[in-house]
Amino acid sequence: MKLRVRSFRCRRIFHLILVVIIIFVTTSLLNNYLFEEKVLKLPSVIPKPQIIGPPPKIPESDQDSRQIQPPAQIPIETDVLEKATKVLTQTLPISEKLPSIAAFNNGTLISKEEIQGGFPANETVASIRDKVREMMKFAWNGYATYAWGSNELRPVSKTGHLPFVLGNEPLGASLIDSLDTLYIMNLNKEFNTAVEWIETNLDFNKNTQVSVFEFNIRYIGGLLSAYTFSRKPILLTKAAELAQRLLPAFDTPSGIPMSLINLKTGDKQNFVWANGRCSILSEFGTLHMEFKYLSELTGNPVYSEKVDVIRKVLEEVDRPNGLFFNFMDPNTKSWCGKEAGLSALADSFYEYLLKEWIRTDHKDVKALELYNSSLESFLKVGLFHKSPQHNLLYVGKYKYGAISNSMDHLACFVGGMLSLSASDKNDPWFQRGVEITDTCRRSYDSASTGLGPEIFSFTDQSSAIAITQSHKMYLLRPETVESYFYLWRFTKDPKYRAWAWDVVQAIEKYARTNAGYSGLHDVYSTNSTLDDVQQSYFLAETLKYLYLIFSEDTLLPLDRWVFNSEAHPLPIQNKVKLTPG
């Protein structure tokens, strides 16, 4: 009897070993399919952007509409690539129907009014809204005509643009960033043409290094939002495929991802300039919303698990003076330097703490606790500072105990964020949000063009004025109009619509070219030269927020939708009911 038992146990052990060997061999084969393709050497010079796929037909207009002839559609490179794509898709099973998620089985269904409505009764307001819609259509037509499939448009040169953080391959960044804006504005033909391009031409299997952060907020956020609106399966499929290609960035001793990843090889690294090649708080701290929602839609927990690790690290890390610093070593989980703030390198981390609490219908209580404690710490160290002249409230930067006397345009989102988190209009934080937005408005009002500079300073002689030439740029940024949007929704003070209308007119007068919109080098000169870039976020954020300001609150109501850092709306759990796709 004992002999039989031993024999039986031996057979079980043998079978287990055999199963492990089979799994190992299978995994190796899959990895070979996915990652052992021939990797092309990058050229020493970045190639001129090429147009991928046939551009849509653009209606004739008075504008110069010369159209670049696109090359033939690029075929799949090899059989290996085709197999790899199939394997990747197979490892990410996406049901045609949503999994049973209690958080999205409750609430009410999405209505057409809340994603394509909001028509204002007032004729003047309606005409301004129509103007913003025309601006979006004009910007889109320029991109479609001269840069179709590229990442961004150069509206002066009338060609494509490949910014470093989006890689040196044309992957349709502006197209994907525009999807939900097109949908919201009822530009249905343009939306459907964009989806067709995604289905036919979008291939993330490219030997190019990209920003994990930018591809999350622009691509994954844009695809998930557009999928939620339209229920076109290809959009969710592509979001999941891309997320899978970003996962190797998380393979660090701490689980804190690196900033850059090669979409084809999975090679990862941090920026050379990032305080000793450290990871950046605003980047690894701005993944939570999209990764959580993607897991909820696909039923694949891996994305949720990755951001849970990040949250755990941030909950346990030492916080001198209660501060999260801007840089962290992904190997040791230690801070790199002692810089903090609500500007570049940190900003959207705090935004996502608040918004993930909102997105989960207030269930992620820890996120709110971290958000509130961070604001209180900033208050104690003097980050919210009053200017010596005019007593203006601005958001400085903390560096080794000192507070700067300047504010980034990027930090102008803080006014909207504080109003969104405040308990009511009497909350001191709400009042601070109002004051900060007033300060950002002053930076616009002080410029000859009526457009705000990239960085503005506060001295004994002046307030909210850019001093250095490089600070005088206007890059079509959305942060100020983003705060106008929130404060309009919460106060209905007509000044926010008036200020938004001023921005519309200034953009039309100084940033419009005959093929799109461009940034300015000097907001204090009415003859400023142009930077020749139509940023993808101009279509995703700036024009969307302007359109919403002149729409009724029934369009994307804030008790049902929350915007990611690129203004892509995501549904709030238990508020929005999602039907099967």
Automatic annotation (TrEMBL):
<feature type="active site">
    <location>
        <position position="479"/>
    </location>
</feature>
<feature type="disulfide bond">
    <location>
        <begin position="412"/>
        <end position="440"/>
    </location>
</feature>
<keyword id="KW-0106">Calcium</keyword>
<dbReference type="GO" id="GO:0004571">
    <property type="term" value="F:mannosyl-oligosaccharide 1,2-alpha-mannosidase activity"/>
</dbReference>
<dbReference type="InterPro" id="IPR001382">
    <property type="entry name" value="Glyco_hydro_47"/>
</dbReference>
<keyword id="KW-0472">Membrane</keyword>
<feature type="active site" description="Proton donor">
    <location>
        <position position="454"/>
    </location>
</feature>
<keyword id="KW-0378">Hydrolase</keyword>
<dbReference type="GO" id="GO:0005783">
    <property type="term" value="C:endoplasmic reticulum"/>
</dbReference>
<keyword id="KW-0735">Signal-anchor</keyword>
<dbReference type="GO" id="GO:0005509">
    <property type="term" value="F:calcium ion binding"/>
</dbReference>
<comment type="pathway">
    <text>Protein modification; protein glycosylation.</text>
</comment>
<dbReference type="GO" id="GO:0000139">
    <property type="term" value="C:Golgi membrane"/>
</dbReference>
<keyword id="KW-0479">Metal-binding</keyword>
<keyword id="KW-0812">Transmembrane</keyword>
<keyword id="KW-0326">Glycosidase</keyword>
<feature type="active site" description="Proton donor">
    <location>
        <position position="214"/>
    </location>
</feature>
<dbReference type="InterPro" id="IPR036026">
    <property type="entry name" value="Seven-hairpin_glycosidases"/>
</dbReference>
<dbReference type="GO" id="GO:0006491">
    <property type="term" value="P:N-glycan processing"/>
</dbReference>
<dbReference type="InterPro" id="IPR050749">
    <property type="entry name" value="Glycosyl_Hydrolase_47"/>
</dbReference>
<feature type="binding site">
    <location>
        <position position="565"/>
    </location>
    <ligand>
        <name>Ca(2+)</name>
    </ligand>
</feature>
<dbReference type="GO" id="GO:0005975">
    <property type="term" value="P:carbohydrate metabolic process"/>
</dbReference>
<feature type="active site">
    <location>
        <position position="347"/>
    </location>
</feature>
<comment type="similarity">
    <text>Belongs to the glycosyl hydrolase 47 family.</text>
</comment>
<keyword id="KW-0325">Glycoprotein</keyword>
<dbReference type="InterPro" id="IPR012341">
    <property type="entry name" value="6hp_glycosidase-like_sf"/>
</dbReference>
<dbReference type="Pfam" id="PF01532">
    <property type="entry name" value="Glyco_hydro_47"/>
</dbReference>
<keyword id="KW-0333">Golgi apparatus</keyword>
<protein>
    <recommendedName>
        <fullName>alpha-1,2-Mannosidase</fullName>
        <ecNumber>3.2.1.-</ecNumber>
    </recommendedName>
</protein>
<feature type="transmembrane region" description="Helical">
    <location>
        <begin position="12"/>
        <end position="35"/>
    </location>
</feature>
<keyword id="KW-1133">Transmembrane helix</keyword>
<keyword id="KW-1015">Disulfide bond</keyword>
